[in-house]
Design goal:
0% strand, 314 residues, globular
């Protein structure tokens, strides 16, 4: 199917972005569009540079278990591509609306959806995998390093990237398949993440209440090697990443669900564009969270920035 056919199918499905490629619906929005361009350019640069630095820092970080590091690298790479590809596409879309280039607007609408959808699903699946990783570390104890290996985690990361790509490709055949797939994936991710953290907190609570010498032999085997203080820090950083993603994605989910059947209006377009921008902000916030919650990453980032300043200063 050609890009033209895809664009026509998108317009036929009444996407708000595609509808606003029409000049009659965009009059008087230039002020808002300029603001969105500025915001997306800023967060694009921040996401790209921030996550590039984090990837270098994660390479030098030695205290984090390699399999867990693979998942954080996966998330950082998806965030980096948000800054490198998705947000520039979004900026091009806003500029094409301002300059009345309808064809460019239509193409960037389709590309923006493809990039944005794929990378958002990658991020969602990755943070879900991180929550499962933390749960397995608690439940498996000594067996954790035998079960959760780097090779298996790389395989899981490959699946995390392949699944949204295939789903996006299905959009070219039938857009409803992609929409329903996203609803199923989002629902499953919410259930799995909620279960994982609930199980973690309940288990830790039981561990605090029940003295270690009262544990059954099989429980002692699994819990004895776990450093509770260090584990709690690992759970805290993964939970912060999860909560931040939820806070950035929730406004768009609510707007998209509530206003899907409404007639397009300029106020709705502005609200939706602002919500999408907030989704992209998540990619700029994650590097800050890594520096805040992971001491090894924080040290590596400081060293890297120090070297850069030294090189330029010299």
């Amino acid at each position: 199917m050609t890009m033209t056919n895809v664009t026509e199918e998108w317009i036929a499905s009444s996407s708000f972005d595609a509808l606003f490629c029409k000049e009659e619906l965009t009059r008087g929005l230039n002020g808002h569009l300029i603001l969105f361009v500025v915001l997306n350019v800023f967060f694009s640069v921040a996401a790209f540079l921030g996550n590039a630095v984090i990837l270098v820092a994660l390479h030098k970080e030695s205290s984090m278990y390699p399999a867990t590091k693979v998942l954080f690298r996966c998330l950082a790479i998806s965030d980096l591509f948000v800054g490198l590809v998705t947000e520039p596409t979004r900026v091009t879309h806003f500029l094409s609306v301002m300059l009345k280039h309808e064809k460019i607007c239509q193409y960037t609408t389709v590309l923006g959806y493809v990039f944005g959808y794929s990378l958002s699903v990658v991020s969602l699946l990755t943070v879900t995998a991180i929550s499962l990783d933390r749960l397995l570390a608690l439940l498996l104890g000594l067996r954790y390093r035998q079960v959760v290996t780097s090779k298996r985690t790389f395989l899981a990361a490959a699946v995390i990237w392949i699944v949204p790509i295939v789903s996006t490709a299905m959009y070219l055949w039938n857009s409803r398949v992609t929409y329903w797939f996203s609803y199923v994936v989002i629902s499953l991710c919410i259930v799995i993440t909620a279960y994982s953290y609930t199980k973690i907190f309940v288990t830790l609570r039981q561990h605090q209440i029940q003295p270690h010498h009262n544990l059954r032999p099989d429980q002692e085997i699994h819990t004895a090697p776990l450093n509770i203080a260090r584990y709690k820090k690992a759970v805290s950083r993964s939970l912060w990443v999860q909560v931040t993603l939820g806070a950035c994605y929730l406004p768009f989910a609510l707007i998209d669900a509530f206003f899907t059947q409404r007639e397009p209006s300029q106020s709705l377009y502005v609200a939706r564009a602002l919500a999408i921008t907030l989704v992209y902000v998540n990619s700029s916030l994650n590097p800050i969270l890594y520096c805040w919650k992971i001491a090894g990453v924080r040290r590596a980032v400081k060293e890297l920035i120090g070297r850069l300043f030294f090189c330029y200063g010299g």
